[in-house]
Amino acid sequence: MTDAVTNPLLAPPSLPYDLPPYGSIRPEHYRPAFDAAFAAQRAEVDAITAQSEPATFENTLVALERSGELLDRVARTFYTVTGADGTPEIQAIEEELAPLMSAHGDAIQLDAALFARVSAVHDALDDLDLDAESRYLVERRFREMSLAGAGLAPDEKQRLTALNQRLSVLTTTFEKNLLADTNDLAVVFDDAAELDGLSDGELSAAAQAATERGLDGRYVLTLTLYTGHPYLASLTNRESRRRLLEASRARGTRGNVHDNRGTLREIVRLRAERAALLGYPSHAAAVLADQTAGTPAAVHDLLRRLAAPAARNARAEQEALQRIADDDGIRLEAHDWAFYTEKVRAEKYDLDRSALRPWFEAERVLRDGVFAAAEHLYGIRISERHDLQGYHPEVRVFEVHNADGSELGLFLLDLYTRDTKRGGAWMNSIVTQSSVRGTAPVVVNNLNVNKPAPGTPTLLTLDEVTTLFHEFGHALHGLFATVTYPHFAGTAVYRDFVEFPSQVNEMWIFWPEILANYARHHETGEPLPADVVERLHASEAFNQGFATSEYLAASWIDQAWHGLGVEEASSEIDVAAFEAAALADIGLDNPAVPTRYASTYFAHVFSGGYSAGYYSYIWSEVLDADTVEWFRENGGLTRENGDRFRRRLLGVGGAGDPLAAYRDFRGRDAEIQPLLERRGLTG
Questions:
Q1: Which of 197, 497, 585, 676 is the most exposed place for a label (fewest CB within 10 A)?
Q2: Mean per-residue pLDDT, 517-527
Q3: 474 conformational bin, left if phi > 0, alpha if psi -120 to 50, beta if neither
Q4: Cα distance between residue 365 and residue 355, in whole Å
Q5: What is the mean pLDDT of residues 63-85?
């Protein structure tokens, strides 16, 4: 199983755009392929450091960029599957690989001989005749290796490597526990009457989910990654709402084998120890040293600036909800918020968002909305490739061409939820573009839409429509980035900048010609009525106190955990008490407005790449809101505007300072006022 004849992962790519041959790959192929790829890159790096010639840009930096191509291909193929179709067999391989991947990465990042060569090129940088991207590569490699600990003493490197390996195991364990507990806590209902308020399609999806679990005749509501659930807005049975939210908030706290409290405490402690080893007072300080924010103080300043008006607005919203809840004789609790919000929305704006689903049929939203906006703005053409296969039967493959007909890349879409898929929605690259490697991009979007019964249409909520546009914004970033070096490919930008392009793409949801194109009743073909569109616009800032508060609360919890020093992080912390104290500190401790993610199911920061970085959504939204203003001021959905945004921002990838790229596009730094107005925080 270890040679190219028998292992498809080791054979030269043969499919268009180097798409992995998923139909031929079996779980037992992965580990031998990783072993071969580790050895190949280690040999490539050893060849760099064994040279007797002085370090140059070509023989060190470019050679380093050329190394690891096999590992990159194998890893991207595998980790696409772990997130989207993580069967027990795949999870076992992932757990086995976690410390090996960490050790391999450290062996390169902490290689003293390699760092000496990179440092020599960096020291001579001003004397070298390099283009802007090449110069930036030297600067980034030197800084990243420095921050990773390449300059530490040997015994310190040994400890750092041990910490990294243990953390890789813990973060994998956290995600595995969360997936298992999320599946275990899916709420089972015996009677359709308990689900009164759901549409026929939603009820059908719940029945289908029950059937798939061997519970014919019953109904199952699976949980979302975040605390809330879309159905909380519709369920008329208060006990059903309570059960649904209670199950969501219980994840990782039940004292069973999936309890995540001990895991996250150890993650926090080891991250704090690693930061101290690298010379930083906290993990947050270490992470933010290499982001656009720069320091925890800058992040705290923004979050505190927004928290007070957000909490104030949430309290005003709560008072309005309570007035209606009084008519039902109840005291408003967290599981009631979404339900009564829709009642207030209906009363104030004559708007029932749950009734909009018939106008948001998934295929039409995709083709006539998401794709159409991108085709109009950038001139690209997107067509389905039925001859190409993804990693799961439900994955669809599309080919993307530029306006001049030239090939651009592939886009894969994996729309539906399943028990082997982690929660939430995301984009990742299976292949990244690089002229050094001669590769073109292959990107995938994952969502978790409930699959209806066979023969019934997939009708999306407005939130799901937003998610589809958002994730495709990430996909466009991955497709459009045009770089020389793989280090800068796709969305390889600062974490607190990466959400910016995806947030910008959400603007086209309500753009008149795009909305009219896709928002049509799935049975009659009638467009979404103009008066409904007007009411949707009028209600855009509605409930933003809640939405902003729950997001800021999660961001603050992330900062609180990762702002701990070694001594604080080493104490036996009560997770619930720690969260409560953190939320009280920033004034977001309203029981009716729970944090968007509680610690034990906060996958973004304890198993994903957002540790000390969940603030980045609002940080990026400052740029996003300012960019939307620019598009409105300059004619909106035009090829000229799209070409400018693509060339000056999306196309840069990670090959330059993102804020410099923003200034090049906008003509100035971003201003915060559009964000404050969007979220109703100006009062």
A1: 585
A2: 97
A3: alpha
A4: 16
A5: 98
Q: Tokens in use for 600? A: 């034990």
**What tokens does 168 get?**
């890789």
Q: Are 590 and 549 in contact (CB under 8 A)?
A: yes
Q: How far apart are CA 451 and CA 636, in angstroms?
A: 35
> What span, in angstroms and rounded, lies between the C-alpha atoms of 412 and 366?
12
Residues 6+ apart with CB under 8 A from 667: none
Cα distance between residue 381 and residue 46, in whole Å: 44
- Report the alpha-carbon distance of residue 100 to residue 148 in Å, rounded: 17
CATH architecture entry for 261-351+542-614? Orthogonal Bundle (1.10)
The token duo for 456 is: 């019934």
Break the chain into its structural domains and give their ranges.
16-109+111-151, 185-236, 261-351+542-614, 358-538
Q: Which tens digits make up the pLDDT trace of 328-363?
A: 999 999 999 999 999 999 888 998 888 899 999 999
CATH T-level topology, domain 16-109+111-151: Glutathione S-transferase Yfyf (Class Pi); Chain A, domain 2 (1.20.1050)
* Residue 156 a catalytic site member: no
Q: Please say whether the beta carbons of 58 and 485 come within 8 A.
A: no
Whether the domain at 261-351+542-614 and the domain at 358-538 fall into the same CATH topology: yes
CA 159, CA 526: separation in Å to the nearest integer? 64
Phi, psi of 351 (to 5 degrees): -135, 125
- Given 471, 499, 550, 579, the catalytic residue: 471
Beta strands in 325-458 (DSSP E): 381-384, 396-401, 407-416, 426-431, 442-449
Q: Does domain 358-538 have CATH number 3.40.50.720?
A: no
User: What's this model's pTM, rounded to 2 decimal places?
Assistant: 0.91
Triad 582, 588, 590: Cα angle to 5°: 115
The mean pLDDT value of the chain amounts to 96
CB-neighbour burial class of residue 660 (10 A; exposed 0-12, middle 13-18, buried 19+): exposed
Looking at the DSSP bridge assignments, the partners of residue 431 are 442
Report the pLDDT value the prediction gives residue 682, as an integer from 0 to 100: 87
**Pure H helices in 350-492:** 362-364, 372-378, 462-480
Instruction: Report how far apart, in Å, the C-alpha atoms of 186 and of each of 130, 219, 247, 472, 635 are.
Output: 56, 10, 7, 28, 47
- In this structure, the number of other CB atoms found within 10 A of the CB of residue 320 comes to 16
In the sheet with 407-416, reading across from the earlier edge strand, the strands are 381-384, 396-401, 407-416, 442-449, 426-431
In the prediction, which pLDDT does 5 show? 80
